[in-house]
Design brief:
The radius of gyration is 22 Å and the shape is globular. The chain has 16 helices and 12 strands. Helices cover 43% and strands 14% of the residues. Strands 2-1-3-4-5-6 form a 6-stranded parallel β-sheet, with helices on both faces. A 6-stranded parallel β-sheet has the order 9-8-7-10-11-12, with helices on both faces. The longest helix is centred in the first third of the chain and has 21 residues, at 71-91. It is of the alpha/beta class. The protein has helices spanning 5-8, 36-47, 71-91, 105-120, 133-138, 141-152, 162-170, 216-223, 243-253, 267-275, 291-298, 311-314, 329-341, 345-361, 363-378, 391-405; strands at 24-29, 59-64, 94-101, 124-128, 156-159, 179-181, 202-207, 233-238, 259-263, 279-282, 302-306, 322-324. It has 2 domains: 9-185 and 362-378, Rossmann fold (3-Layer(aba) Sandwich), CATH 3.40.50; 202-359, Glycogen Phosphorylase B (Rossmann fold, 3-Layer(aba) Sandwich).
Length: 421
């Protein structure tokens, strides 16, 4: 499998402010893998921007807002971020700040950043990456009022789907004309999963931070449920967290022989795991729209997931995913069994998911939509580099080359999956 430009790159690092006079836009978030999907989305944007930008464009630059240390270090990183914004404002070449926000401490850190930008006269766009309903409802009245004020300050707010849009407009009282719905995007994969002819091996992947909220205990219990036929089943669990605790849980349930824990995985390893999987299982209790699901359907991997957050507004049960019940190992086991044993279902989910990715979740569409928001609110935007060819394009080229030469081009491995209908 050949690596695409994005998969071959290391994640971007927060750079020091440049001394040149070119315009730029800060992408503000925790700039480390601890930032989860929010960090990955921000990093994808910076990775895929063009190296040589035309006049009138703005370069996207990373702005770390948390660091990877304790609370005091996190406060220092936030103050440094504010100082960099102030320096950019004084130089006159900072076009705006794209602030990525979630819940809990992220809300307070990014709220402070947005307040600082407002005081400095720097325009902001707030990008919401969380379902805030429950968290907001538990806040004291004074903090709810402060949250509404913070959301009133940016020139625009980006949400991922209709549920978040309704909450931002109806509860946080942001005018509808300032709310923009943009679905996240992920890179084009290098290849699709290919199973050996006649293979009875079923390769299952769990891809998320290891936590109860992501439903990992439920999945482990599902593997021990009598409704699931585990013959030929291998389960890879990839993600950072307390690996030892969940390994102990797997041993306690008697399923340790089925599972392999990979720990935290970088972008290239995630792509390789997906290219060697038949099914992603993500039984989360609380989500917005997990990047793991988008990455799975991009790779043509069947998805079994819970219908939480924005997932049911974008995926359809039985068409491009199988929905299971939250916190129900029996339902998860039944959903997995359905995909494994229903003739043609796994292939149908994979094909329909891949087509859905091409329509809505490709990185070029995501970048273009973000650039439109930046242009609207900051008066300038970045530009994307030439996107890599899709796997369908690569397959078509390979087939053409095979007809001309009687074989595939050297050093290139392609799968034989048909393009989605």
């Amino acid at each position: 499998m050949q690596d695409s430009p994005l998969h071959n790159r290391k994640p971007s690092r927060a750079p020091s402010p440049s001394s040149d006079d070119s315009s730029y836009i800060y992408i503000a978030c925790p700039w480390s893998p601890g930032g989860g999907g929010m960090y990955k989305v921000a990093d994808y944007l910076i990775q895929c921007q063009a190296e040589d930008l035309p006049n009138g464009s703005a370069q996207l630059r990373a702005l770390d807002t948390r660091g990877s240390g304790g609370p005091l270090y996190s406060l220092w990183v936030l103050l440094v971020a504010i100082a960099r914004i102030a320096a950019g404002r004084l130089r006159g070449n900072l076009a705006g700040v794209h602030v990525n926000l979630a819940t809990r401490m992220s809300l307070f850190r990014k709220g402070a950043l947005i307040l600082a930008c407002a005081a400095l006269g720097v325009p902001t766009v707030l990008h919401l990456h969380a379902q805030m309903n429950g968290f907001y409802g538990r806040l004291p009245a004074v903090l709810r009022a402060l949250t509404r004020w913070v959301f009133s300050l940016p020139k625009g707010v980006i949400v991922i789907g209709p549920a978040a849009k309704g909450f931002v407009i109806d509860v946080l009282q942001v005018p509808a004309d300032r709310v923009n719905t943009i679905i996240n995007g992920v890179p084009e994969p290098d290849s699709m999963p290919v199973s050996a002819p006649g293979s009875r091996l079923h390769r299952v992947l769990f891809l998320a931070n290891l936590s109860d909220r992501k439903g990992l205990p439920d999945l482990l219990q599902a593997l021990a449920h009598p409704a699931l036929d585990t013959s030929g089943l291998t389960v890879t669990i990839a993600g950072g967290g307390n690996v030892a605790a969940y390994q102990a849980k797997a041993r306690e349930l008697g399923v340790s022989g089925l599972v392999r824990f990979e720990g935290w995985c970088d972008q290239r390893k995630v792509s390789r795991l997906l290219a060697n999987s038949d099914m992603l299982v993500l039984p989360s209790h609380d989500e917005v729209l997990p990047l793991a699901i988008l990455e799975a359907i991009a790779h043509g991997v069947a998805v079994v997931t819970t219908a939480v957050g924005e997932i049911p507004s974008l995926l359809t049960n039985g068409v491009d995913a199988v929905f299971v019940t939250v916190a129900s190992p029996a339902s998860i086991a039944a959903g997995m069994q359905k995909v494994l044993k229903t003739p043609g279902l796994k292939q149908t989910l994979a094909s329909n998911g891949r087509a859905l990715y091409a329509r809505h979740f490709c990185l070029s569409s995501f970048f273009s939509n973000i650039a439109s928001v930046h242009q609207r609110y900051f008066g300038m935007s970045s530009h994307m580099k030439e996107p890599p060819p899709s796997v369908e394009d690569l397959q078509e080229r390979a087939d053409s080359g095979a007809m001309l030469t009687g074989g595939k081009p050297p050093e290139t491995k392609f799968n034989t999956r048909p393009a989605p209908l």
